[in-house]
Design a protein that fits this description.
Blueprint lengths: L1 E7 L3 E8 L14 E6 L6 E8 L4 E7 L3 H10 L17 E6 L10 E2 L2 H9 L8 H15 L5 E5 L9 H4 L19 H15 L7 E7 L3 E7 L2 E5 L20 H10 L4 H10 L2 H6 L5 H9 L3 H25 L4 E5 H6 L1 H9 L10 H4 L6 E2 L8 E4 L4 H15 L1
Parallel strand pairs: 1-6, 6-8, 9-12, 12-14
Antiparallel strand pairs: 1-2, 2-3, 3-4, 4-5, 7-8, 9-10, 10-11, 13-14
Length: about 400
């Protein structure tokens, strides 16, 4: 069974192809036959295409961009033509899976894509204006390029958090907000679910018997408290802006600040949106970058604002982990994933220092070794600490395989 995965963003399109057996899934994530990415941020009017096959053949090209549909077609054609040929023709593709950021209250699990589902994804763009339209573009690109006969599956980022208790998902505003769809949804669900399952596998434990906190730390950051295999609390809410300090997003701030700026600084709603989503977080505090690596370099050179940005990031991360702890009533494992979580030993070490009272003991030599899919806690630590490479594409492929097996 050949499963194509599309992970569409506003400025990039990631894709990969898996070849799986009909009835069974491998225990460990397999290497895809083919991987590709289009980056539309390279320069104005251009797209950067990078393609890699299982045989480590790599193609990189920067070319004029006529449209996202045309660029996606060019990317997919490398599947069955050119030096990176992975299949004979497009008819070999059995199913296509898409990451869709917002499924609202309607979609609590993955679903076959129909005209009705597409309409719902479009309507939910009001809650995720950057992501859902891009996800829908990816779905329609497949229809245009491969035709309507290939089944497609929507895998929702919000679905893993669909069973949050009412006390967690309800905001303390007017109760009528709920009927308007204003509630906490949570995001990064595909990543959190995958990492929880992978943690149970690495620890050789039953996921339903574990209390986990998964830390998805990248340009966007969120935590999930996981008990009985389900998300029972998370840091992102109505939008991906709530919660932790992020690369260029503020995370949670006093809403009175926003009222003050609207009243006294002539801010518009659009200006506030730009400030909170694109000029805050690590970038806003450091004044340098939303990339933690650049901030760490500046710290070493004595830059005070870079140090403040790092210290704030860790402080807020610890504070939110503490909030997750109270929801779980204990902790078996702390999981770090995504760009910062997987690659920053400094963030992991500084974060874990705040939880030694739990009996958590980090093995610094293991932590500094840039481990992936490994336990980096001391053997006598009462809390396991894992670094896991999040594989959203593989998680989407697994969902597609399950859907196909049931049909």
């Amino acid at each position: 069974m050949k499963i194509l995965v599309l992970n569409a963003g506003s400025s990039s399109q990631k894709s990969c192809l898996y070849d799986l057996k009909e009835n069974t899934l491998p225990a460990d994530p397999p290497e895809p036959l083919w991987e590709a990415q289009i980056d539309w941020t390279h320069q104005d009017g251009c797209a950067k295409l990078k393609v890699k096959t299982f045989q480590d053949q790599v193609l990189q090209e920067t070319c004029p961009s006529d449209s996202k549909l045309a660029d996606t077609l060019k990317m997919l054609q490398t599947l069955w033509s050119g030096t990176t040929q992975a299949i004979e023709n497009s008819q070999e593709i059995d199913i296509v899976g898409h990451r869709v950021v917002h499924g609202g209250e309607i979609y609590r699990e993955s679903t076959w894509i129909t005209a009705e589902v597409k309409t719902a994804i479009a309507n939910l763009a009001a809650f995720a204006p950057v992501h859902n339209p891009a996800n829908l573009e990816g779905i329609e690109a497949i229809e245009n390029i491969l035709g309507n006969n290939i089944p497609q599956v929507a895998v929702f980022d919000t679905a893993f958090h669909a069973h949050l208790p009412p006390a967690v998902y309800t905001y303390p505003g007017p109760y009528e907000w709920l009927s308007q769809g204003i509630r906490r949804y949570g995001f990064h669900g595909i990543s959190h679910q995958y990492c929880a399952q992978r943690a149970a596998q690495l620890l050789d434990r039953d996921l339903n018997a574990l209390k986990l906190i998964t830390c998805h730390l990248g340009n966007g950051c969120s935590l999930a408290a996981i008990r009985d295999g389900r998300s029972i609390d998370t840091t992102m809410g109505f939008t991906p802006l709530e919660g932790l300090m992020m690369g260029s997003r503020s995370g949670s701030v006093d809403p009175g600040i926003l009222i003050h700026l609207l009243r006294h600084s002539d801010y518009t709603a659009d200006q506030l949106d730009r400030v909170l989503n694109h000029r805050s977080g690590l970038l806003g505090i450091s004044g340098l970058s939303n990339d933690l690596r650049q901030i760490m370099v500046a710290m070493e050179q004595g830059n005070d604002r870079a140090k403040l940005a790092f210290d704030m990031f860790v402080h807020r991360l610890r504070a939110q982990i503490g909030a997750m702890l109270s929801s779980l009533g204990g902790l078996d494992g702390l999981v770090f994933t995504a760009g910062i979580g997987e690659n920053s030993a400094a963030v992991r070490a500084a974060t874990c220092e705040g939880f030694e009272f739990l009996g958590l003991s980090l093995d610094l030599s293991q932590n500094n070794a840039l481990p992936i899919d490994r336990d980096i806690a001391h053997l006598d630590s009462k809390v396991r600490v894992l670094v896991i490479h999040t594989q959203e594409d593989w998680a989407i492929a697994q969902e597609c395989h399950k859907m196909a097996s049931r049909s």
